[in-house]
Description:
The protein is mainly alpha-helical. Helix content is 78%, strand content 0%. The chain has 7 helices and no strands. The longest helix has 41 residues, at 127-167. The protein is globular. The model has no long low-confidence stretch (mean pLDDT 92). Belongs to the MreD family.
Amino acid sequence: MKRGIIYFIEIIICLVLQSSLYPFISLANVMPNLLIILVVSTAYMRGKTTGMIIGFFSGLLLDILYGNLIGLYALFQMLIGYMAGFANAIYSEDDYTLPLVFVAIGDFIYQFLYYVFEFLLRGKLDFPYYFRTIIVPEIIYTVAAATIVYKLLHMVNHRLIRDENKEE
Length: 168
């Protein structure tokens, strides 16, 4: 129960920061995708099921706030959470570089799916332009932000595990 409340608070904090700080922290018209960092980091630390659940609810909130179609962002985030959850098998508490690679891959998949469903299906075929101006800068910015955010999420996860072990 406590873990669920913490996850809900993490989703809300990332969503509020991502949506309200956009004008202040955007560089080259892109900003870090904090929800992708949250979904990938949680899936990496806790596994596929938790990654899917966090991805679904964070994506659903994105759908409610920004989406034209309810469920599209939820599907994207859930898929990324599920795929990142496979990396839980190689999870190491001391490794801070591998999660950054997974965040970059997750952000690329998210942006690619976004391009396919928002632009490609509408006949806008200039993927190299979108890749150059949106995908690459956002991946770089998201990975840079993930260096800080992942450490915070790792500390929260470590504390939750310690508290759960203490209760038993």
